[in-house]
Structure formats: structure tokens, C-alpha cells
Amino acid sequence: MSAIKIEHITKTYDKGSVTALNDISLEVAKGELFGLIGPDGAGKSSLFRILTTLLIADKGTATVDGFDVVKDYKQIRGCVGYMPGKFSLYQDLTVEENLTFFASLFGTTISENYDLIKDIYVQIEPFKKRRAGKLSGGMKQKLALCCALIHKPTVLFLDEPTTGVDAVSRKEFWEMLKRLKEQQITIMVSTPYMDEANLCERIALIQNGELLSVDTPEKIVASYPQQLYAVKADNMHKILNDVRDYENLQSVYAFGEYLHTTFKTDEAQSEPKLIAYLQQKNNSGIEIRKIEPTIEDSFIRLMTEASTS
Ligand SMILES: Nc1ncnc2c1ncn2[C@@H]1O[C@H](COP(=O)(O)OP(=O)(O)OP(=O)(O)O)[C@@H](O)[C@H]1O
To answer: Could you list the residue range(s) of the whole structural domain that residue 113 is in?
Structure first.
């Protein structure tokens, strides 16, 4: 049995004028660390809210741990942990009070499930008398995770847990997730950060309420169909405009300090031909080399394909 099974879920807002999720189907295995990757407004929060029984879909069905999200909402509320993107903590309560409050909601105590949160809680324990509103972003995130875990859930939903958190805390957070996974907890986590996609076992790329791809990050990258090139010159603004006018161009976009480019027809002569063209356009300091795509390149390609089809 899958830990999460989503079948043809559609959700609209504003009397159907906004489609947040369009016919989404997806399965997550027990104990899997699954990532939902997509930009703002892609539909990630809507899906989390449906799976945690806070929102009802217009169409389709979903189960969490075998329980139906509509009929069995009470059982689901007891077995899932949910860390929403915003406002999951009571800012005026202290660290300890927040945790005690969440434990009492589920009829448990901090000491009963202390083993599960111990690794995370020891990091915030020195601040246990501090109000949640006065904690740093990384500390708030750790406390929110402890609160989502305090009743020992079997499935954990984390909506953009690392947004607005510094790089060190982000890294620590992903290490904590790996340890939770070792305890057989199924984790569905959303993030707008592409680098975090590689830390998941499988990911779904989502845009405008549609799933563009569902697979392991490695397989998504391996399915990139073309040779990708990194291109650079002294004047990046000029070279971008020139490459856009190149007749054999398939795609080009800025990526860090390079342009990433593919050609309509790729051949051994592709690199020298582009160099000759760019030289003829008076570009200097031209650099071009073959590169391996990243998950972000794959996402850009899938998004472009989806928006032009
Ligand atoms: N209560 C609502 N009323 C109307 N439209 C909404 C509502 N909630 C979400 N939407 C719209 O539905 C779409 C999906 O939003 P959702 O919040 O699910 O996406 P998201 O990927 O979580 O993005 P974000 O990180 O910005 O919340 C967006 O176009 C959003 O504007």
C-alpha cells in the first residue's frame, strides 16, 4: 500500500476561474522522501492542504496511509504531521509552550515521544523560555518541525520548510529529514529551491497545477534529450541578444555567469560554428563548452515545453 495515493485531483478557486491543481495523479511509497518542486503559485500548498484534510478537492480522490482524505479525515489528522509554509507557531508562546500545546492537542506529552524529536529539540532547548516570535528563522523552523513530529506521525508534510532560512540551517534541516526517513516516516516536502531537489529520492516537478515529470532526480536529468552548452563572453548582454538571433538556436537562458544553450541540429561543428558567428558579431572573450544538465536545466526545458505546447 502506498503512503500517499492521489488520483485525478483538481482544485479551482474563485468559482472555477483559478485552477490551482489540474488532474493530478501521484503515488508516494511508505518511508519515501518525496519532493514537490515548483515555483510560487504552482499549486504545492493547495495539494498539501488537500492531503492534510484542510481543503476539499473539486474532483478526484486521495488517500494518506490508506485513509480517504474526505471520509476518514479524523484518522488522517491523527496520523499526519503538517508544517505549513507560514504561521504554524504561536509567536507569543515560548518554545516549550508551543511544543507542550501541540503535544496536548494530540493527547500526548513531550516526554512520551521525546526520542523522535530529541536530535532536533536539543538544538533549541537552550532557548526554551524564549518566545517563538523572537527566534531566528532556522530556530523557528526546527521548533515547527518538532511541533509537527510530537505526536509521532507516520506521514510528514512539510510545505517550503527552508524558504527564507540561511544556507547552514537549510543543510542541517535536510540532514534531519534523512534521519527521520531512517525511522520509516514518509516525508512529502515542497521547495522552490532546485538544489534541494537532488536531496529527495523522487520528485514531482509542478507548474501551473500540472505535473511536468515524476521520477528520481537522476532519471529526470538523464532524460534531458540534447547536448547542453555553456556560453560566455565579455559583454553578456550583447552575447545573449546575438545568440537569440542565431539561426540554429533551440534555447538560450542566463544561468549564473553563463548562458545555457541548445541547438536545433547538433553536430561536431556546432561549437566552432557558433564561435565564428559570435566573432562575426564582434563579441570578445568568447567561451563555449559542453556541459551536463542540472535538475534546473531539466525543469526549465519541461516548463518551456509545457508553455509552448
Ligand atoms: N484561497 C485562494 N483563493 C484564490 N486563489 C488561490 C487561493 N489559494 C491559492 N490560490 C491560487 O491558486 C494557485 C496555486 O496556489 P498555491 O498556494 O497552491 O501554490 P504554491 O505552489 O503553494 O505557491 P506559494 O508558495 O506561492 O503558496 C495560485 O494561482 C494561487 O494564487
So the answer is: 4-214
